[in-house]
Hints:
It contains eleven helices and eleven strands. The protein is an alpha/beta fold. The longest helix is centred in the N-terminal third of the chain and has 18 residues, at 5-22. The site of NADP nicotinamide-adenine-dinucleotide phosphate has 26 residues, from helix 10.
Amino acid sequence: MLLDGKAVSKILLEKIKQEVNKLDAKPHLVVILVGDDYASKIYVKNKKKTAESLGIKSTVIEFPSDISEEVLINKINELNNDKDVSAILVQMPLPKHINRDNVVSVIDPKKDVDCFTPENVGKLAIGMKPYFYPVTPQGIMIMLDYYKVPIEGKHVVIIGRSNIVGKPMAQMMLQRNATVTICHSKTENLEEIIKAADIIISAAGKKVVRCKMVKNNAVFVDVGISRDANGKLTGDLNWESDFNNFNEVVSFLERVSPVPGGVGPMTIVSLMLNTLASAKHMVILCLGAKLLLSTISLSF
Length: 300
Ligand code: NAP
């Protein structure tokens, strides 16, 4: 695989571990989990496990789904003031009676390792440097940089306009001088737009792209996660019979990030990078691997 997120994340995790080892005051990531959403519990468990494997202190605070917004906000304020806590993450989704915006707005932007606060999101939007970049787009940037995929001047098509993937991805690509098109469920002529792309980043969560829509030499980053009829994890790319021969398949595979094993591991490593940065009280000064890694003394 050209875009092997699992392999890249392994290299980076090892580097992060070495950096954490050097610190006297270890990073401390606190994850708040509200309710008992099955997928959220798995995500949180994986984050904790990865953090601990790197020597990062990790605490999960669980609340029942009927917790009030006020209690949740009070807890976040407490964590904001706790000098032992360097990173705060509120696992989404929250129960319907809790206003997500009210909750994320109180997180200290300097501890906002998921880049949810209006300050960090706003800074990203106007081209200022947020304290942290959002983890999935940052992970994608690092992966593309690792594989030396050119970005400047390229046409990047992003499928999806969510606050956690599509919109910040577009901002980060613009800052890297890409020409960006954002598509969504109401976009007309999706196939034509995809065919014109040099890089496609697909985060629809359903099979919206067929291999034949992707032009020769274009790179396809598959963010989507869904389950096929057999319950197997799958991405947004529909692999059905678009190839005439095996060579075509091999050539295509070299330009795709797989699901699982692509963006998923890069998202986790990106969260760990932000958590490391939170402990070092540093601002990640850049986008993408090159400067990001030099800022925290990591290099491939
Ligand atoms: P989301 O908030 O549900 O957004 C999905 C986006 O896809 C929306 O903007 C939607 O358009 C668009 N869309 C849906 N159907 C479409 C279609 N037929 N054609 C074009 N666009 C379409 O989801 P999200 O939070 O961004 O996540 C997207 C996917 O990525 C999910 O599968 C999620 O599990 C996965 N994900 C993976 C990772 C990872 O680490 N691997 C991280 C984050 C997310 P509208 O706005 O018009 O509704």
